[in-house]
Amino acid sequence: MAQAIQGSGGTTATTKEPWYKVLYIQVLIAIALGVLLGWYDPATGKAMKWLGDAFIALIKMMIAPIIFCTIVHGIASIGDLKKVGRVGLKALVYFEVVSTVALLIGVLVGEIIRPGAGFNADPSKLDASKVASYANKAAADSTVAHILSIIPKSFLDPFATGDLLQVLLISILTGVVVTGLGARAKGVNDAIDTAGQIFFRIIGIIVKLAPVGAFGAMAFTIGEYGIGKVYDLAWLVGTFYVTSILFVLVVLGTIAKFAGFSILRFLAYIKDELLIVLGTSSSETVLPQLMTKMRRLGASDSVVGLVVPTGYSFNLDGTNIYMTLATLFLAQAVGADLTVGQYVTIILVAMLTSKGASGVTGAGFITLAATLAAIPNNPVPVAAMTLVLGIDKFMSECRALTNLVGNGVACVVISRWEGELDTAKLNEVMAHPVAIGTHITDETPQPMGTDGKVAAAE
Fold this sequence. Notes:
By secondary structure, the protein is an all-alpha fold. The chain is 70% helix and 2% strand. The radius of gyration is 22 Å and the shape is globular. It starts with a strand and ends in a 21-residue tail after the last helix.
């Protein structure tokens, strides 16, 4: 594979790297080996779970400090709170519009395909104990509780718990205050920038373990649930995957076309990250790499620092599709007829419950329980979720993949809206996605100028 190397004279040379050293090939091999192990020796496959858990834990320990440093430095470097507000407002509007489209697509596909029709499940015979923990978490997540949970117990608590919404809150507040202090806070801003670069380099080391994590996670998944679980509910799994693929190609593809790039080339550009997410079922594992790649793609550093971390809490297209499609599947499976009012409630509740459902494995299942619990006169018991419990791990992978692509596209689009997208760099990277866009996890963000754009090297 090709790797771009900067020569001393400013020219870019391309060298060949052995195929077995390429990250996405290593991850592909690891996933295949994990599937084989889980299939032929389920007990050993389940014992490999700790490898996937360890890799995700290593990534998660760095997510909160990276988001904090990136957002604070991004806001302070912009130096204009009006611009910060403008970018934030554009991002939120974009997130809500696209997320609503995703929810509506889930409803539309559920009504047309009707994957649960003919399932004839008897709610009285379902074992509610299997989903009791999810139901309890959902019951505690009322609208008021959801809002209050955004406020951390202390300034440092989000760094210990890893709650993305809480991290976003303290990051934005800190960034605004640092900006308001002006020159007096320059030393603080520089220190935060340096800390961010250190954290990115740590992630660059950790991500080299992605094949090991992917192997362990996939071996456990197949060993624990078996491929047979997919066969049992293949119609729902297939419907969800096809719907998500069409959403990416048609909806996000159309948005990308208007923004001046090809969704297929974009997918090729982030293939390493997609494969890591496929293996780990968590989009958080590639958040730092995605931010770095968006900078390399030509998006401004300030927009990347604000949009990508925020999108991980507010722009979850895959989770939104899953919630409405799975809700309709469960209603059809138990023979329940939903009213128009209940449909509207499902969409409105899902818009709220999906916020903060970060890239952690299983978060979508909890939001589904919260959505079901909030439907008035609900004819679909939460116990019906046992019908999809066995395949949720397979669904989680698709949710995470769709969320990742959606956040990448959003970053490029909003950067273009702000007039801060380097279209020449975008076209060059899209034309040569392998040569330009590979093996950048060791890189750190470039310093920014006061206008929020990447400063030229001296």
